[in-house]
């Protein structure tokens, strides 16, 4: 299955020039090919020029889309002329794909507004969107109201739209493993499994004793253990890590991998302390880092919605995410702060990665029992941050997202660490505290806040607050009836 397959509806209206439809088809097919997107559309023999105009055309196009239901992650509506507003909406209703929809209209040329060459797509797009709104079909708008497919802004819109489709499809089917109980001291990571399930997000639980018990049954000589040991030492410098600690880590990694495979999991949230250290004798950070680097996000302290946030940001960017603490102020700079965790960030964030111990945790469980934490400093790179949570008293899903950058500012400490510069940081912290968000946030080396806003707010129907301008005040937009459209 091609995860980048989109359905294409080319609108038409009988009293506009048919050649505009034929020309648009060639241009769209060429663009999709260049962007490595598989377009699924009517053949030119199926309807007049392969466009959708009549109710019969809508039936044919909907049947084609249904035949490719498992492939199509979104639909592109192309309006080379005014288009038939009913045919577009009826196609989507009959296909019943429940996927994102991007609406594009062609611009008119100022010297071609005669009857034989005019498009009127500016007006037709409004009518098409009006019908989609009436039908309760959610849709995305291009940055420019009308835009030619070769315009750089549309190429970005289309690439972003594919990412929106990827996020939406992924979140509606994600399976997260909750491995162990929430640590007693972390009320902050409580969540509603039932609210998640209503949104298509499944949580599979397992007692940590089962995982540790199965790990203790393995031996250093077992082939699976040797293979995992090789993967671990190839992944990161072992530093001063003792052989026995590496073997413990490898055995645990085998069992975690078996559990993930048996339950078809996309991500995991693990009880990473303190039971693992006290009852097994090592940290699970290295395994979590390896999973996150391999696009199977793994979050700390059984933070299931934090792990869900990792997955969402990963889907938006196509690169690994890390779960971090909003940890420290950075001197007197109001727009900078320190991001930190014991040591399980994906390798992509840690060019100087090394297996080490967790000194803070070691003060209570013995540092010799914390081998497996990773040390490393994240250098300057782009930053998208975000957090998804269940607001249990209100029964809703909510999120905040924004962009900034990671810097190379001096930072003398241990563990996994980074310095973030974020516009409007003080207002962001006010918003987090006033709205009951967790101390964990997710970072991703991308600029994908717009994609996440569209996917989480418009298509998932969650409350989303975006922080993007230094002067912006928190003004969350909610779509309570799940019928409202994106405000691009």
UniProtKB/TrEMBL annotation:
<feature type="region of interest" description="Disordered">
    <location>
        <begin position="469"/>
        <end position="488"/>
    </location>
</feature>
<dbReference type="Pfam" id="PF02952">
    <property type="entry name" value="Fucose_iso_C"/>
</dbReference>
<feature type="domain" description="L-fucose isomerase C-terminal">
    <location>
        <begin position="339"/>
        <end position="465"/>
    </location>
</feature>
<dbReference type="InterPro" id="IPR009015">
    <property type="entry name" value="Fucose_isomerase_N/cen_sf"/>
</dbReference>
<dbReference type="GO" id="GO:0016853">
    <property type="term" value="F:isomerase activity"/>
</dbReference>
<keyword id="KW-0413">Isomerase</keyword>
<dbReference type="InterPro" id="IPR015888">
    <property type="entry name" value="Fuc_isomerase_C"/>
</dbReference>
<protein>
    <submittedName>
        <fullName>Fucose isomerase</fullName>
    </submittedName>
</protein>
<feature type="compositionally biased region" description="Basic and acidic residues">
    <location>
        <begin position="479"/>
        <end position="488"/>
    </location>
</feature>
<keyword id="KW-0119">Carbohydrate metabolism</keyword>
């Amino acid at each position: 299955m091609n995860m980048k397959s989109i359905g294409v509806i080319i609108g038409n209206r009988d009293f506009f020039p048919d050649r505009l439809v034929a020309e648009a088809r060639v241009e769209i097919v060429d663009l999709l090919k260049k962007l490595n997107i598989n377009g699924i559309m009517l053949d030119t023999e199926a309807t007049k020029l392969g466009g959708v105009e009549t109710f019969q055309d809508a039936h044919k196009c909907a049947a084609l889309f249904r035949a490719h239901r498992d492939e199509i992650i979104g639909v592109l509506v192309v309006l080379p002329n005014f288009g038939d507003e009913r045919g577009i909406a009826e196609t989507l209703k009959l296909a019943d794909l429940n996927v994102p929809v991007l609406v594009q209209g062609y611009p008119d040329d100022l010297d071609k507004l005669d009857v034989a060459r005019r498009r009127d797509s500016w007006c037709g797009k409004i009518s098409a969107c009006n019908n989609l709104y009436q039908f309760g079909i959610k849709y995305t708008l291009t940055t420019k109201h009308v835009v030619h497919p070769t315009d750089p802004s549309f190429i970005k819109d289309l690439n972003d739209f594919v990412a929106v489709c990827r996020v939406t499809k992924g979140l509606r089917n994600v399976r997260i493993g909750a491995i162990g109980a929430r640590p007693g001291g972390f009320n902050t990571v409580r969540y509603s499994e039932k609210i998640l399930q209503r949104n298509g997000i499944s949580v599979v639980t397992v007692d940590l004793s089962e995982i540790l018990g199965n790990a203790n049954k393995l031996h250093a000589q077992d082939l699976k253990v040797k293979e995992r040991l090789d993967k671990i030492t190839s992944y990161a410098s072992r530093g001063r890590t003792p052989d026995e600690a590496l073997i413990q880590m490898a055995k645990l990694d085998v069992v975690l991998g078996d559990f993930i495979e048996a339950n078809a999991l996309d991500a995991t949230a693990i009880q990473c302390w303190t039971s693992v250290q006290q009852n097994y004798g090592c940290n699970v950070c290295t395994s979590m880092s390896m999973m996150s680097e391999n696009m199977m996000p793994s979050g700390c302290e059984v933070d299931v919605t934090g792990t869900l946030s990792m997955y969402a940001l990963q889907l938006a960017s196509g690169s690994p995410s890390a779960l971090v603490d909003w940890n420290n102020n950075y001197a007197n700079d109001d727009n900078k702060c320190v991001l930190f965790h014991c040591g399980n960030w994906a390798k992509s964030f840690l060019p100087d990665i090394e297996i080490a111990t967790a000194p803070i945790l070691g003060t209570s469980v013995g540092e010799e029992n914390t081998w497996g934490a990773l040390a490393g400093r994240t250098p300057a790179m782009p930053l998208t941050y975000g957090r998804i949570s269940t607001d249990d008293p209100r029964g809703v899903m909510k999120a905040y997202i924004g962009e900034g950058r990671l810097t190379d500012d001096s930072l003398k400490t241990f563990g996994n660490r980074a310095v973030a510069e974020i516009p409007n940081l003080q207002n962001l912290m006010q918003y987090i505290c006033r709205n009951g968000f967790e101390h964990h946030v997710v970072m991703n080396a991308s600029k994908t806040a717009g994609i996440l806003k569209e996917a989480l707010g418009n298509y998932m129907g969650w409350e989303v607050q975006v922080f993007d301008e230094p002067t912006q005040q928190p003004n969350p937009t909610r779509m309570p009836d799940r019928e409202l459209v994106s405000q691009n």
